[in-house]
Amino acid sequence: MTNLTPHFSLNNFPSTLCAMIALTIAWITLPFFIGFIGYMLPGMATYLALGGAIASTGYALRLFTQLPLTLSLLDNFGVTLLLDPLGGYFILTNALVTLAVILYCWRTGKTAFFYTQLIILHGSVNAAFAAADFISLYVALEVISVAAFLLITYPRSDRSIWVGLRYLFISNVAMLFYLVGTALVYKATHSFAFSGLGQATPEAVALIGLGLLVKGGIFVSGLWLPLTHSEAETPVSAMLSGVVVKAGVLPLVRCALLVEEINPLIRGFAVGAALLGVIYAIFEQDTKRMLAFSTVSQLGFVLAAPEVAGFYALTHGLVKSALFLTVGTLSSRNLKELQSQSIPTPLWIVLVITSFSISGFPLLSGFGAKVLTMKSLLPWQVVGMNVAALGTAIAFAKFIFLPHKKESLNLRPGFWAAVVLLTGGLIVANVAYYDAYTLENIAKPLVTIALGWVAYWLIVRRTEVKLPRLLEQFDHLIGVMSLMLILLFWMAFA
After folding, report:
1. How far apart, in whole angstroms, are the C-alpha atoms of residue 492 and residue 200?
2. Which helix (H) or strand (E) holds 376?
3. CA torsion through residues 319, 302, 452, 396, sign
4. CA distance 176 to 79
């Protein structure tokens, strides 16, 4: 028997409620239906995927104009969906990034298989963002792993297959721990709801925490991420870094908001991730690896203040996808080589806009997101996150100060459509938090960015430091996962 329990005020009309429930179920199933039809009609796969992404954009925008909606299906054993403005930010990120990737790949010879897997990945990420119980989330995360694996291995080269298998193995091991933790939550509460984590045993907290930290690429659990995101094809890297990792982050955000006891634990890992990722990003000379390490750092910013995580996630998704799509068109991935030659001015302008946004420069949404996050930190987080913000300014100065010149470009047909969509989103989203524009709030990021540029010119540009990649090796990733589990057990029992 199906039980629908929408959380609406009594002032809402039943017809509106029913329409929203029907719309929600149609929205969450649509990408999978499109994926099926895409296999049947391969000539239509691109258009169907485009339509699916546009539909998701419309649905996400609707979430900002209505009350939160909870759908509970099949009682305690079933599916619980939560659609609220927090999830709306993540769903909107998924929709815009998917739309941009489809435009980027337009008329580039990608097969129907690519677009069907892309839209299935989009749908499974939507499902993860909407899930409000551990077992539904598990199913969504497993579908994400398979769809992402198929996209990573799309070139069918030996290298891509190895990277894909490595990703799949790490992901599945993490999900095994997560599943055991989910069973322990059910044993303690007879429910799979996120809120049950507060009544579950410390073992359940540690096991579920490990699974989500690995899937979300947080702190040392995210050291699988740089190789995977940098070796994938450019549009797949944009999807992985802009959206897919956030499927593990939003559940951590929801758990932190629901269970007071684990809130400090998640904030602590956020600070660690922000610092670890940015240190590697500063000294990395490979553009795609630098962006991937920056993702580890920026996910720390998303988690550092769970109550305002949505806006930062949207901003980061737009920025990082645009950056990956742009560096994928450059003549080299090596920053030293790019510094010795001039890149086309239009591409340099895109790099400057996105680098300004992620550094917190005013007039772009990264400014408001950073101000909002910094104002929501606990006192013990402030120093670490400010250091991470300074490190971000240093790392992205490498793009801002690249030499450039006017020259003709021969880019993919959809490149500019994708980049305009993403950077336009950064400008439009900037108005979402216009209260941030006070003299104090404007001065602080400007000083941080100026200090970052000085540090870049005086120290980083003249220094060649190669940080060890030991912990990124496959066997060491499993070891790191074991150490993280021990740490989580210790923190959960403390």
Report:
1. 11
2. none
3. negative
4. 20
Within 13 Å of residue 378, how many CA atoms lie on the same side as its CB? 14
Q: How far apart are CA 451 and CA 55, in angstroms?
A: 43
C-beta neighbour count of 249 within 10 angstroms: 27
| Cβ atoms of 387 and 300 closer than 8 Å | no
Distance (Å) of CA 202 to CA 197, 212, 421: 9, 15, 44
> How does DSSP classify residue 286?
B
Q: Write the burial class of residue 360 (CB in 10 Å: 0-12 exposed, 13-18 middle, 19+ buried).
A: buried
475's CB contacts (< 8 A; 6+ apart) are none
The whole-angstrom separation of Cα 164 and Cα 151 is 8
Helix extents (H) in 259-334: 263-283, 287-304, 309-327
Among left, alpha and beta (phi > 0; psi -120 to 50; other), residue 2 is: beta
Name the token pair of 438.
């006070």
In 287-432, at which residue ranges do the beta strands (DSSP E only) sit? 343-344, 404-405
In Å, what is the CA distance from 27 to each residue of 97, 238, 452?
Answer: 17, 23, 44
**CA atoms of 404 and 344, how far apart (whole Å):** 6
Q: CA-CA distance, 348 to 355, in Å (whole number)? A: 10
C-alpha of 462 from chain center:
32
Enumerate residues 6+ apart whose C-beta is below 8 A from 33.
none
pLDDT, average across residues 479-488: 88
What is the residue-wise DSSP string for 69-85? EEEEESGGGSEEEEE-H
* pLDDT value for 7: 47
Residues 274-314: pLDDT tens digits?
A: 999 999 999 999 999 999 999 999 999 999 999 999 999 99
Beta-carbon count within 10 A of 303 CB: 29
Contact 89, 310 (CB under 8 A): yes
Contact 476, 470 (CB under 8 A): yes
Write out the two tokens for 304: 């550092």
**pTM, two decimal places:** 0.94
Helix (H) or strand (E) holding 49: helix 45-63
Of residues 406, 402, 413, the one with CA closest to residue 344: 406
CB neighbours of 439 closer than 8 A, spacing ≥ 6?
none
